[in-house]
Amino acid sequence: MKKLLEFKDVSYFYQTKENEIKALDEVSFDVKEKEFTSLVGPSGCGKTTILSLTAGLLFPSSGEILIDGKPVEKNDSRIGYMFQRDHLFEWRTIWQNITLGLEVRKQKKDPQKLAFAEELLKKYDLYNFKNKKPRQLSGGMRQRVALIRTLVLQPSLLLLDEPFSALDFQTRLKVCDDVYDIIKSEQKTALLVTHDISEALSMSNKIVILSKRPAKVKENVNISFTGATPLSKREDKDFGKYFEMIWRNLV
Amino acid sequence: MKKKQINYSKARKKYLRNIKKDKCLVLLGQIIIFALFIGLWQLLADTGAIDPFFFSSPSRIVNTIIDLAEDGNLWIHIWTSLYETIIGFIIATVLGTFIAILLWWSEKLRRILEPYLIILNSLPKIALGPMIIFWVGSGTGATIVMCVLICVILTTISMLNAFISCDNDKILLMKSMHANKLQILFKLILPNSIPAFFSVLKINVGMSWVGTIIGEYLSSKAGLGYLINYGSQILKLDIVMASITLLCILATGMYLLVSPLEKRFKK
Ligand SMILES: Nc1ncnc2c1ncn2[C@@H]1O[C@H](COP(=O)(O)OP(=O)(O)OP(=O)(O)O)[C@@H](O)[C@H]1O
Ligand SMILES: [Mg+2]
User: Fold this and answer.
1) What's the pTM?
2) CA distances from A186 to A15, A77, A105, A155, A183 (A)
């Protein structure tokens, strides 16, 4: 399958008053179209930095990042970014929240986009909450709204930065399933950052293991399970084997 | 929300009754304190335990207010103070918020102006009184300027703090959707700071009255501050106390007008 995202020997330095922090050290990996790739690595190793670089919020100190064969631009519109917390705006209704991106891009009057937004809400059981405020929704629902807010802009690559870490364990498994479902049925390519190995295993086709800071790619692990949903994959007989291998690589 | 006919459970009924009871008790307590205060004051004054010449008394205050009202001048004094306070309050709030927006917009400007903001904030504005009179002349203008000076720096600093404390990830989110700076300001920073804005409004109600009274002390021909000054000079402390009473009522009234706005926005 085609490579949608390519990191080629990307290094990145943060500049601070005191010193220079090397966050990435010649990182190379790729994400294939319609696949689900996860980044795992010790905390503070540079995972968020990789996503920020991909989204065009930062630019590499050296090396090259290609999306669809073309270099990333400032605020690349081919990218959708979902953060750790949902960051829904409390003063806006659910509908106003998910159309925020359209508003910002001056597409609020485009009937096609609005119809798409409405369709997403209906498809993922949030239509009844259209005019509610975020605080009237549960944590899992809020996270779904945050995902829809990203999908409304029809990005070709979704970046997910520990999107479930703010949820409790039960909700987390459920939302994980939901989000996986949405991403698969919308046929999106996704790059997920997580520190939870099981989560990475249950969602991804490929896991990229990073070393501690400055991040280097330690290993690319291709995953294949027979199960279809993250929950069922967790029951696969190979799950434990993969888990151990990745865990050994991490520490 | 629709009102439904619900058969509340026993525990729920009890809970609701208790809430009502608590509310009544609180109100009762407040009324008792008020009545005790007024009654005791009147009693002490009537029995001569305190000298009504210095301490006045509720009945003397009421009579003085009636006298002043019949005189016709009371309304001019009230109107003058109210007018100065409201104009000062509005100018200071709008100007302060506007300066805060400018300082949020340009970090350079913010860093350049920071020491001056600190100086202006620590300076007791009343010290500028004589200068203000030379610059804008005595009277209503000077009072409004004093009022604005007292409120504007605080408004600027509070609003700027609210703007800056906006979650950085929310800004990144806006950026990842390609928002420009103006959109970030109007769609994120300003609505996000509405709660802070309301607390600034509430503080400014009190501060603008301080400004007005100080301004009128310094130089004026009308207003409650003038009346207080005048009363103390001719040793009619009843006039002073009557003016303070009116001031209490007006300031509380203004606060009560501003605070429901907050509830409306919270919905
Ligand atoms: N704006 C910044 N200025 C300076 N240093 C930074 C900045 N942002 C991140 N860093 C440093 O760069 C390193 C990588 O940060 P990054 O946020 O990418 O890590 P992460 O893998 O996402 O961590 P976590 O697991 O905690 O989310 C960290 O050690 C951090 O201290
Ligand atoms: Mg991170």
Assistant:
1) 0.85
2) 39, 17, 22, 11, 5
| CB-CB under 8 Å, B177 with A105 | yes
B175–A79 CB contact, under 8 Å:
no
Which residues in chain B are contacts of A103 at CB distance < 8 A? 187
Are A75 and B170 in contact (CB < 8 Å)?
Answer: no
Q: CB–CB of A201/A246 below 8 Å?
A: yes
Share of chain A above pLDDT 90, in %: 51
Question: Does a structural domain hold residue B250?
Answer: yes
Residue B211 lies in a domain: yes
CB A131 within 8 A of CB A103: no
- Cβ–Cβ below 8 Å for A87 and B183: no
In a domain, B239, yes or no: yes
- The enclosing domain of B112 has a CATH number of 1.10.3720.10
Q: How many residues does chain B have?
A: 267
3-state SS track over B41-109: HHHHHHHCCCCHHHHCCHHHHHHHHHHHHHHCHHHHHHHHHHHHHHHHHHHHHHHHHHHHHHHHHCHHH
Q: Kindly list the residues from chain A whose CB atom is less than 8 angstroms away from the CB atom of residue B181.
A: none
List the domain range (segments joined by +) for residue B214.
Answer: 61-266
State the closest ligand 1 atom to the C-alpha of A45, by its place in the atom list counted from 1: 21
CB-based pocket (< 6 A), ligand 1: A 14, 16, 21, 23, 43-49, 195, 213
Smallest Cα distance from B198 to chain A, Å: 15
> Is the predicted pLDDT of residue B2 greater than 60, yes or no?
no
Residue B126 has pLDDT above 70, yes or no: yes
Look at B175 and A57 and tell me if their CB atoms are within 8 Å: yes
Residue A15, pLDDT score = 92
ipTM of the modeled complex: 0.86
Partners of B170 on chain A (C-beta within 8 Å) are 87, 89
The string of pLDDT tens digits covering residues A208-249 is: 999 988 999 998 888 888 777 888 888 888 888 888 888 888
Q: Which residues surround ligand 2, an ion (CB under 5 A)?
A: A 48
- Chain B hits for A105, CB-CB cut-off 8 Å, are 177-178
Burial (CB count within 10 angstroms: exposed 0-12, middle 13-18, buried 19+), residue B136: middle
Distance from CA of B189 to the nearest CA of A (A): 11
* Amino acid at site A40: V
Q: Which residues pair with A208 in a beta bridge?
A: A39, A220
Give pLDDT tens digits for A30-77.
Answer: 999 999 999 999 988 999 999 999 998 899 999 999 998 888 877 678
Whether B153 shows a pLDDT value over 90: the answer reads: yes
Test the B interface: residue of A100, A102, A143 with most B CBs within 10 Å = A100
pLDDT at B5: 60
pLDDT of residue B4: 56
Number of domains in chain B: 1
Does some domain include residue B20? Answer: no
